[in-house]
Amino acid sequence: MKYAMLICGDDREWATLSPAGEEDVMKQVYAWFERWQPTGKIIDGGAELQPRQTAKTVRADGDGRPVITDGPYLELKEVIGAIVLLECDDVDEATRIAATWPFGAGMSALEVRPVMSHE
């Protein structure tokens, strides 16, 4: 079954890292991928998202027409900063893999959620 591992945190903390600090965190992240990719548990790598100020939000107005605004819809301290898709037997296995993630600046929580299948 497929699971989305959502990497959440305050992306403003990431922006305060020195180049050496950023490099150190990324080495840890790359090591995590090197550990799990050969096992077949990671599907198609992952996707790191740009900072929240680059976001656009689309929502429906009262008549169902789209309204586009800058930034995330809600003012949140934590936002989703990256997504990794996992292929696991069950949510417990996906959670065990997520628990090995190397937390660094701007990363404070991981959310593991099953991906809907309409097969």
From TrEMBL:
A Pfam family that the UniProt record links to this protein: YCII
The organism's place on the tree of life at top rank: Bacteria
Annotated ranges, domain YCII-related: 1-116
PANTHER family xref list: BLL7171 PROTEIN, BLL7171 PROTEIN-RELATED
Recorded family membership: Belongs to the YciI family.
Name of the protein in question: YciI family protein
Classification of source organism: Bacteria, Bacillati, Actinomycetota, Actinomycetes, Streptosporangiales
